[in-house]
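User: I'm writing a tutorial on reading structure tokens. Could you give me a worked example: one chain, its sequence, then its tokens, then a sentence or two explaining what the tokens reveal?
Assistant: Sure. Here is the example chain.
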Amino acid sequence: MKPIIIWGGKGHAKVLEEFLPSLGYALQAIFENDTAIDSPIAKIPVIHGEEGFKDWLRDWSGGELSGAVAVGGERGRDRVRIQRILQDHRIQPDVLIHPSAVVSDSAVVGIGSQVLMQAAVCADTKLGPACIVNTRASVDHECVLGEGVHLGPGATLCGCVNVGDCAFIGAGATVLPRVRIGADAVVGAGAVVTHDVPHGQVVVGNPARILRMKED
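And here are its predicted structure tokens:
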């Protein structure tokens, strides 16, 4: 089994840990910046903070490590930053595809991206690094997702949608064909997006309308 670590100690870590063995991985440790969070997985230790990570890594003697970042939602920038920390320490952020997911042979999935249970990534789609396509989410043909994008459970991108870096598409939202979602934008759960969404805007409703600017 290939040793792997997870950075992020909440529910997303449980989602990944459940299917890692089926991909040939053995989870070694979980890292989390929030010192109030304990391990979500029995018998797997949680190590807190970047200094804790460095101390643990100095003691690691089990060979080459893979990594996964279990930080979702609107925290795409954090996910990308943590993935780069792993890479800086020569830890490979692997692509993780659930056995029940469907990924087209013509799709390109960026380093460290995750395609979860019953999700679909269709023909000629391109996912950037550190993306999450969550449970039952669907990315149709020729979509392009920048780095750090997260599609919530059941979200649907129709064909030829372009999603900017670190945008978040909420659970059950639908983005119609050829729409552009700006970087750092947030599409609320259940929204139906019929027009382009500018950078950093939060949109909600059917049809989706601008609610406010996303807070930093």
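What the tokens reveal: The two ends are 40 Å apart (CA to CA). The domain at 2-70 is CATH 3.40.50.720 (Rossmann fold).
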